[in-house]
Amino acid sequence: HDTCEVTQVELAYARIIQGDDAGWNILGLIMEGTTEKAIRSSIDRLSQLTSIDAFNMLSRHLQTVNEALNAEIIKAVGSLQLKESIPVLTKYVNSKSSKIKIAVAKALGEMNYEEAKEQLRLLSSDRDEYVQVAVEIAQQKQEKGYEAEAKNTDEVFHSIFFTPEWLLDEEWFEKNTAGFRMRYKMIKSQPLSRFANMDIMPDEMITQRRRAIQKELTSKLMGCTDVDEIISAKNVAQKQIDMLATKDQLIKAILDAPDGDLSPAASSNLNKALDFASEDVMRAVVIASVNKSNPIWVALLNIVIDQANDSSYIDLVIYSLACKLNSSALTPLIKLIDLERARYYLLYLYNYLYINTNAMKIRDLQVAKKTLRKLSINPQTAESIMVMLTVLQERMM
User: Distance (Å, rounded) from C-alpha 233 to C-alpha 249?
Assistant: First the structure.
């Protein structure tokens, strides 16, 4: 039955193209109430008939079908690019349905009239972030006159793997981190949360501080015969000593930190560790982040990229990001876009996300776009990346 009605749609469309008005009557009857598949087929064909008759038929059937079909009709109305359709679309700018408002944004983006631009500006203040993204894409299309298109996935992957020297594999990672890990092998492992209120300093400073505490204790207790006071003073001194930690102890705790849900104290300590501004601490964070899925580790990699004074461990950063096949890795890779290896991994991640949309979050894409706009990079490179991000946003709609 579906096939028969879809065939009728095609026949009606052919008759309209040939100038036979009977085709309009057939499409009208199908739109009045047949199968959903036939109605969708009719909407698609009507969207290709840039005429006032097609607009009238589409607008007549708005609100007479379900929400999903209404959204399809609205987008079809936009495809006609008729100025007369703007007042009809305007009625849905304040719809309670995000799906409808996204469709309205896409429809308005098809038209370069000032009235359409004004409605998009109004819609840009919508609270729904998906609607905001749809508006941004529509405005981009109005401004630049084209819609972002995805490259052929197979073609892109072939070009990437044709030059495999950019790849960093597990063997490379183990080779480049084994020596660093070995330096801290004999240090006792402690929970990262233990360092919450500790004073972290180099080994030689720890020794000096301990001596100063002992000297102060000796001076305080000189001539004291009160046992309770002596015990109390010693306990206070011991607590002061216990709150001292070496940089190496912190690094060991970072290297051994579990994934899972980090406690607030542990998360705070990771940020505190980076404030310590030690290259070895930052390298430890990068190495530890490789097999971690908690989003806090990507946030830490962003901090490392911002603070890094040299590139001695940037390849480790890129390798860690490459192990995180989700949209959170987009922003740090974009920050490193001047590096060829980062560009390759960004392209790889783009194609992965294009296929695996469940690995994307709209917020990550928005942050990536915001970061890209702030960077001083080659305009063509920036434009290409912006198109990629826009395509991914489209995929989520």
Answer: 27
What's the start-to-end Cα distance of the chain, in Å? 31
246 bridge partner residues: 201
Q: Rg of the chain over CA atoms, in angstroms?
A: 31
The pair of structure tokens assigned to 12 is: 């009606």
pLDDT digits (tens, 9 = 90+) for 150-206: 444 445 445 544 555 667 888 888 988 999 899 888 888 887 777 766 666 666 676
User: Given a cut of 70, is residue 276 above it in pLDDT?
Assistant: no
* pLDDT at position 107 over 80: yes
**Structure token pair of residue 257:** 């930190």
What Å distances lie between residue 388 and 17, 95, 348, 354, CA to CA?
37, 29, 12, 9
List phi, psi (to 5°) of 62: -65, 140
* Predicted structure pTM score: 0.61
HEC per residue, the chain: CHHHHHHHHHHHHHHHHCCCCHHHHHHHHHHHCCCHHHHHHHHHHHHCCCCHHHHHHHHHCCCCCCHHHHHHHHHHHHHHCCHHHHHHHHCCCCCCCHHHHHHHHHHHHCCCCHHHHHHHHHHCCCCCHHHHHHHHHHHHHHHHCCCCCCCCHHHHHHHHHCCHHHCCCHHHHHHHHHHHHHCCCCCCCCCHHHHCCCEEECHHHHHHHHHHHHHHHHHHHCCCCCHHHHHHHHHHHHHHHHCEEEHHHHHHHHHCCCCCCCCHHHHHHHHHHHHCCCHHHHHHHHHHHCCCCCHHHHHHHHHHHHHCCCCCCHHHHHHHHHCCCCHHHHHHHHHCCCCHHHHHHHHHHHHHHHHCHHHCCHHHHHHHHHHHHHCCCCHHHHHHHHHHHHHHHHHHC
pLDDT (mean) for 275-304:
83
d(CA 76, CA 49): 10
- In the block, residue with structure tokens 């084994």: 178
Helix axes of 170-182 and 279-289: crossing angle, nearest 10 degrees: 140
The closest alpha carbon to 73, from 95, 96, 45, belongs to: 45
